[in-house]
Amino acid sequence: MEAAVPAGAVASAIDQDYALVGEGLTKVFGGFAAVKDVNLAVRRGSIHALIGPNGAGKTTCFNLLTKTLSPTKGRILLNGVDISRLRTAEVARRGLVRSFQISAIFPNLTVLENVRVALQASYGTGYHFWRSLRAVAPLNRRAEELLEQVGIVESRGTTAAELSYGKKRALEIATTLALEPEVMLLDEPTAGMGHEDVEPITELIRKVAVGRTVLLVEHNLSVVSNLCDRITVLQHGEVLAEGTYEQVSNDERVVEAYMGGVDE
Ligand SMILES: Nc1ncnc2c1ncn2[C@@H]1O[C@H](COP(=O)(O)OP(=O)(O)OP(=O)(O)O)[C@@H](O)[C@H]1O
Question: Which part of the chain is the ABC transporter domain (predicted)?
């Protein structure tokens, strides 16, 4: 007869496989449950998408996982550690980083300066406008490396305001990488983009995801099918289906949810 596996052993095996886990996540806004008992496990090293029709609860769920909102019920585990009660900065220090919104980019600073600000934030020194150029010079090399990685190093001297939309997104990814994330959370990375920018950003995400874990909310289903290993579909705040793109796109309930909604 096989010896019973102690519960702790199962839990730690799960911790090793999954970088980020949401357990029984629930968020109630004034009596309305936007997210209900959602269980989500993001496998280490994977690109995982959260999709669903409008109003399905994706943003709320994402905000819970990124600690922008606190759950009414449930908990969040990062590498097996309960981070539900930790602040965003502490969670970022532990490797869980949400991509900055474009609005968080300083439009009047150059591309290089923007990445340097992020690096200074990550080194805990903060950004001091009065610091001499010599004092910040060591950061320039790292900033240039990051810009190289995201393919916009030739724009280093351009002010962020002058960048195309696609390059702004690339800059946003560089500022996220400055925090050395182990788990990256991307909020609709291709939202508002023209056709010509979607593919380069998809390829960039694929590239920076190597050696990391990525969770993204994305409306563009062709990006999801092209990029993501696993997909969780939400509807009315609950998990409707989970699997590969092929599995969920062949699931009648998912087809029905999308046909019944107004999503693209
Ligand atoms: N702060 C809030 N207060 C009250 N209701 C909210 C709040 N935030 C979200 N909701 C409601 O929760 C539900 C889920 O919203 P959420 O934005 O999470 O969905 P979504 O799937 O991201 O939708 P979309 O694709 O349209 O962005 C919606 O009915 C929304 O109106």
Answer: 20-261
